[in-house]
Each structure stands twice: as structure tokens, then as C-alpha cells.
Amino acid sequence: MKILCTGPLATLGLKMLEKEGHQVDQHLSKSMLTTEQLIICCKDYDALISATITPLNKAFFEACSHLKAVILLQPSFDHIQPKWATKNNIPVGYTPSGINQAVAETTLMLMIASSRQIIAQHNRIIFNQWSKTEHLI
């Protein structure tokens, strides 16, 4: 199966797909493809792994009705119209809890940084505005 990925795919995931005999092409441009560009690109592929928030609408699903699957590397599918995927018999998968741990870790980090005034204290050190006798906090 030929798969188009609209962004960088993790090395392990890429190797797993290739091991199963799939050909994966990655679109690694810094600019996000428009819906029209994505329609043109998908003509030669059997599946799409979307790592961007390019809108997948009625026009996309009708023009790409040959796709066997669309996978979203996001925790939601707000930028697609799933009813058109269903009408064209294209299954859509997404990663609803893929970033939960990262969000929780970042939240705790920001809470600790805020409570200890880490950014303000770091800036004091950088700009040489601290003394050895004064407590930073």
C-alpha cells in the first residue's frame, strides 16, 4: 500500500509500516498543503496519514474516494468533515489520547516553574541582578 504522510513520521512508526510492506512517502515541507494541493498529492496513494490541520472536507473526500484510510496524528478531528468520509466509505482514525501524558507533564512543569518564579529568577541571573547574600525566592 502506498501511504502519504503530510509531516514527519516517527522513525519507529515508519520502520513498522515499511516492515509490513507499505511504501511511505513523507511531505516534509515547512509549508502546510492546502486542501486542493492535498487532493492532487493523494491521487497516487492508497492511504493518508495527516500530521497537519489541513481541512479535509466534502471536496477532498469526493475527489479522494479511492483512499482506503485516513489517519489523523491529532487528538481531535475538528478540521475534517467525517460525514463525507463515511459517505465515501473511507475509515478515519485519530489519536484521542496520544498527547495526554505530555500535556500533564507540561502542566506540572509550568505549575512548579510559576510557584518557584523560575523564569524571573533565571532572568535575574542572566542580567546579573542577584547577589550571593540575597535569597532568590
UniProtKB/TrEMBL annotation:
InterPro entries: D-2-hydroxyacid_DH, D-isomer_2_OHA_DH_cat_dom. Residues 4-129 form the D-isomer specific 2-hydroxyacid dehydrogenase catalytic domain. It comes from the Bacteria. The keyword DNA damage does not apply. Pfam families: 2-Hacid_dh. The keyword ATP-binding does not apply. Keywords: NAD, Oxidoreductase. GO terms for molecular function: NAD binding; oxidoreductase activity, acting on the CH-OH group of donors, NAD or NADP as acceptor. Belongs to the D-isomer specific 2-hydroxyacid dehydrogenase family. PANTHER family: D-ISOMER SPECIFIC 2-HYDROXYACID DEHYDROGENASE FAMILY PROTEIN (AFU_ORTHOLOGUE AFUA_6G10090). This is D-isomer specific 2-hydroxyacid dehydrogenase catalytic domain-containing protein.
